[in-house]
Amino acid sequence: MNKLFYTTYAKEWLEALPLGNGRLGAMVYGEPFEGRIQMNEESVVYGGPIDRINPDAAKHFQKIRSLIKDGKIEEAEELSVYALSGTPQSQRPFQTLGEFSYRIRHGEGEISDYRRELDLESGIVTVSCKQDGITYGMQAFISLEADVLAVEFSADKPGCISMSGLLTRGRYYNCAGSAAEDAIYIDGDLGKGGSEFRVQAKACTQGGSVRTIGEHLVIQNADRAVVYVNGVTTYPLREKKITDCGGYLRRQLSGLTLEGFEEIRENHIRRHSEMFGRSVLVIEDGTAEPGQASAEEGLARSLGPEQMSAEHEEHLRPLAALEQLPTDERLRRIAEGGTDHGMAALYYAYGRYLLMSCSQPGGLPANLQGVWCEKLEPIWDSKYTININTQMNYWPAEICNLSECHMPLFDHLERMLENGKRTASEMYGCRGFTAHHNTDVWADTAPQDLAIPASYWVMGGAWLATHIWKHYRYTMDQDFLERMYPLLYECVQFYADFLMEDGEELVICPSVSPENTYIMENGRAGRLCMSSTMDTAILRDILIQFLESERVLGRQSELGEQAMGILERLPGFDVGRHGQLMEWREDYEEWEIGHRHFSHLYPIFPSNQINAYENPKLLEAGKKALERRMEHGGGHTGWSCAWLINLYARFGDGDSAVKYIHDLLGKLTAPNLFDMHPPLDRIPGIPWVFQIDGNLGGACGIAQMLLQSHLDEIFLLPALPSSWKKGSVKGLCAEGGFEADIFWEEGKLKEAVLYSKKGGRAVIRCSEKILVRIDEKAEGGFGKNAAFCRGQEAVSKDGKSGTFCGEGAAVSKDGKSGAFCGEGAAVSKDGKNAAFCGEASAASKDRKDVPAVLDEKGRYVWETRAGEVYRIEAVLNM
Questions:
Q1: Which of 176, 722, 801, 825 is the most exposed place for a label (fewest CB within 10 A)?
Q2: What percent of the chain has pLDDT over 70?
Q3: 267 φ, ψ to 5°?
Q4: In whole angstroms, what is the distance from residue 399 CA to residue 746 CA?
Q5: Residue 390 CA neighbour count, 13 Å, CB half
Q6: 217 near 227, Cβ under 8 Å?
Q7: What span, in angstroms and rounded, lies between the C-alpha atoms of 57 and 38?
Q8: Within the chain, what is the greatest distance between any pair of CA atoms?
Q9: Cα–Cα–Cα angle for 91, 94, 95, rounded to 5 degrees
């Protein structure tokens, strides 16, 4: 059940339910008859673009380098604060667009049957309750196609919708009032050089009346009312530009009617559900962990059924019962030590939902809070922190089948290019492109803040640029690679100029291990260094990916030859005194051993430089480094915990990964499932803060537990937890242009389906022996025409393909192809093509064995053709 639902109303913003279409975001909360819909628009930032490059950087840069090389770290750090920091030190903050609040006239009787929910599959929030024999309802969604927030208010008794609506933005707007007889507005500007903005709301009614009085919308005695709300800015760096906000909104909203609401809603559901339904995870064992369950069962036996408390009984509930609990109750159970594997599946679905809702083609990338921010001065400005957070936002984009949601990141990289070339030239005297640890909607690339372990770091742009190759590997889209090649070129050009010789090695200087601190020989804290492990690894990635891009595109350049020479002289990875993968070139002790960043483990994840095939000893050192972090309290922020899940998935340790899924849900998740960053001792005044990176990184980690493809192989169930006995996942993507569905039982692979989008070699790694068959009658492309269903019968509309079912059978109308079923049998009417079934045998003349060859690593290898579907069945004996 891919729904969040609650039986108490949302008093706080962190209990509100999110909606979004990429550009617009909304948070729905409030009391039953007094609601609030806080809104965001992706480009609402205070202020315009400014030149923040420190004019004194170039004259002091070489001095800073010399001080670092001579071991005079404190002097180098002091001079860096003066000479390298941006002027001013901070980029532009993201802000709330405003709020639409409403009050509904109602009776005095007791309110009952209150329920609010977010349906992830449809992207609709609904609220309902009863009072005085009347059922009131509200539904809200943000349409991608219509580009508007639509809110419907209804009652099951005629004439019962009397209400008012108001637009506000604290005290930070210029004008407000009537935009038409049925519409209100607010407008303003976003500071010197900033954009102008306008928000407008229009009401339509069935029966009754609507009018404006002052700055209020007033609806009286309606049977039903629909309110459309939109907000726009004059932000100039998107493809779609608006110069007259008022004129644009008047034209758009005038065309929206009560009668058109259902069409807008249906179109929204169709488009949203198609994207959401590409990948669905089902974990069918939802009871407590075996050890915990046996302890509780023993307690039940000793106390007897009368004395067994409800608190203990609920820990033993099966999945079906757990899904009937409100979402906040399920979180409470986990926080108290209960196990609910269904919440891991819901968290996966929610992460995909959030990425869909805050990052769509043509718009801006997901920021630190996606597109949901209630404040005018948010913590860390709610912009783009590019030393982990923005990158983590996009970890799930490819593997979780949301590749188009990745595109805003690449658009923004292109916006950053010219600013990054200026930053490289004016700060460091280098050609090429660079960016530091933050950027904003104006594509700023100068250093942010006065934070020594973070600000003076030249790897932010390069780390973002590694996503280019990742997108190419999943999509095999050479046109995209051709488009982004100039950015890769400029990125490598910068390091070709920037690197410094230190003996036989080429090093990055200054360098940091993001936000961490080491202890120098004199016992004092140091941050700046030469070539931290992460920096070397990012540079190695971008050099290799540039060279691979040239190979794919048939290019040869002098810079390519230079890149090969640089690779040969980069520092290697080393093992320290504790057996750990070293974080710096020197084996320093750490100031905070349990630090929240795992920067030195970048070569393991998200990169693949350290792996079991090529350097198993370094992989073990990486495990030791992680153990050390965790023994001293690491992983204590939401996004850090999400990184842990991904790392343990790479280590093949599903049981540890699932432990941190439970920690993420039980300790670091708000009632509305938003990921939380806790207060930090080192920064006074930081409260609990929502950051979307943990949601999105967590979703990626769950996917990585079930499929990995970073080593030119498709590894099925690489880190399946022992407690996830039975389940299925549809629509995970793999590098090389593949898509997979996977079923498992008793903790082992049962069967899988592999769709080859581009053709080429398939390399399958799994723990079981398998048979591979090709389905010659697979039609329409994998997952394109067939619905993904669980526990019900369904037939596709076009009749050409049967349903992909979790627990049921379906037969297509034309009888040519049966369903793909998890636990049932289905046979087509003509008897020629039986379904692929989880618990029934199905033979087919149209399915023939594929001569998969075992390679030296025990992997199954065969050549695929574009568009073909391959059935993979685990067998006990061969």
A1: 722
A2: 87
A3: -65, -40
A4: 25
A5: 31
A6: yes
A7: 42
A8: 84
A9: 140
Pick from 700, 731, 732, 706: which is nearest to 719 by CA? 706
- Measured CA to CA in angstroms, residue 343 lies from 27, 31, 352, 808 at distances of 22, 26, 14, 23
- Residue 13 is given by DSSP the state G
The backbone torsions φ and ψ at residue 399, rounded to the nearest 5 degrees and listed phi first, read -65, -30
C-alpha span between 448 and 386 (Å, rounded): 11
For residues 645-670, give the mean pLDDT: 97
Task: Give dist(CA 818, CA 829) in Å, integer.
Answer: 8
Average pLDDT over residues 800-817: 35
462 three-state secondary structure: helix
| Cβ atoms 855, 861 nearer than 8 A | yes
Rounded to whole angstroms, how far apart are CA atoms 129 and 153?
A: 12
Beta bridge partners of 185: 177, 200
> What span, in angstroms and rounded, lies between the C-alpha atoms of 562 and 543?
10
Which tokens in the block code for residue 808? 């049921």
Q: What is the DSSP letter of 506?
A: E
| CA-based R_g, the chain, Å | 28
732-761 per-position pLDDT tens digit: 999 999 999 999 999 999 999 999 999 999
pLDDT at residue 296, rounded to an integer: 36
pLDDT value at 803 more than 80: no
873-876 LR contacts (CB < 8 Å, sep 24+): 873/750, 873/751, 873/770, 873/771, 873/773, 874/748, 874/749, 874/750, 874/751, 874/766, 874/768, 874/769, 874/770, 875/768, 875/769, 875/770, 875/771, 876/769
- Chain segment 335-348, per-residue pLDDT in tens: 999 999 999 999 99
Return the closest-CA partner of residue 525 out of 6, 78, 36, 43. 78
Q: pLDDT tens-digit profile of 192-250? A: 999 999 999 999 999 999 999 999 999 999 999 999 999 999 999 998 999 999 999 99
Query: Cα–chain-centroid distance for residue 654?
Result: 20
Check whether 485 has a pLDDT greater than 70.
Answer: yes
Amino acid residing at 627: E
Closest by CA position to 208, among listed 139, 255, 160, 253: 160
Question: Where are the alpha helices (H) located in 668-785, listed in sequence order?
Answer: 693-706
Query: Cβ contacts of residue 790 below 8 Å, gap of 6+?
Result: 280, 282, 805, 806, 807, 808, 822
Which residues, at least 6 apart from 746, have a Cβ–Cβ distance to it below 8 Å?
725, 726
As a whole number of angstroms, the distance between CA 210 and CA 258 comes to 12
Confidence of residue 686 (pLDDT cuts 50, 70, 90): confident
